[in-house]
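Render this sequence as a predicted structure.
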Amino acid sequence: MVKIGFTTSRSPAKKTRSFIHDIVSIVPQSSRVARGSATIVYTINAMKMKGYETAVIVHSVKGNPNFVRIYDLTNKPKELPFAIKIRGLTLSREYRKENSRSRPVFSILISSLEKSFENDILRKVFQITNIGIDKIKGKSYVTLYADYLDRDEGLIFLEFLDNNNKQVGPRMKIRIVPREVE
């Protein structure tokens, strides 16, 4: 499995830190990487040296997670030509009463998205396995459900359920946008 590191922009707000905590709790083989005052280049290179294969950087606007950049660290670190714009977010602390949850070993995707690049980005960021559900029975897993809220705008709704069909992690409205990278 690929090791994924999640970090934030400098001086993140409490909601952005909570968002990273929510995501790391549901994405297998992931961890939060403290950035401090380091530059993005230094942080990405440090992640590569520690064996991470994917870096996800969450940027905030007015205290809310807003924009996610994704880097492939397998060879020379390079930014992927897509980003995720967060258009709506409900953290798990806002809808869950209990906080006991076990970390999943696998994550699977159930998607009605039509564009393959959207599914590919979700697979990369949320560590979606290619193993069939019948082979992971008895193991801890999380299911990511992805569906369009508005096809014309490309607005996608994401929600995560554990193997007992209880909601875990954040609920999000996102758009996956192509972008130019160097």
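Summary. Residues 131 and 175 are 26 Å apart (CA to CA). The radius of gyration is 16 Å.
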